[in-house]
Amino acid sequence: MMSHSPSLPPEKPDIDFNSESTVQKLARKSKDSPLMVAGLSSFFVIAAFGIYRFRNRGQLSASNYLMQLRVTAQGAVITCLTVGVLKSLYDRYNKDDKTE
């Protein structure tokens, strides 16, 4: 057995990401960054609703309707990611204050 000297950092556990199933990968990602999953979910909900409402778009041209739908879906994702970044910055700032 190898003994670790005090100056060496402890070894990180080996995680084989290739053997993860899709469900396991999604569960790991949702624990690591839940707002990313919320952003992707909001994108798919907005896209599904837009596809459903495409037939009743009124006088709006198809290309204009799809462009507005894309901007709305992207805005939802960007909002979720921005909230996630702000939350991590807030947590980091509060963590630094507590250690002093």
Automatic annotation (TrEMBL):
Keywords: Membrane, Mitochondrion, Transmembrane, Transmembrane helix. GO terms for biological process: mitochondrial respirasome assembly. GO terms for cellular component: mitochondrial membrane. Residues 1-23 are annotated as: Disordered. It is found in: Mitochondrion membrane. Residues 7-99 form the HIG1 domain. Gene3D superfamilies: 6.10.140.1320. InterPro entries: Hypoxia_induced_domain (IPR007667), RCF1 (IPR050355). Its main location: mitochondrion. The chain crosses the membrane at residues 35-52. PANTHER family: HIG1 DOMAIN FAMILY MEMBER 1A, HYPOXIA-INDUCBILE GENE 1 HIG1 -RELATED. This is HIG1 domain-containing protein. The lineage of its organism: Eukaryota, Metazoa, Ecdysozoa, Arthropoda, Chelicerata.
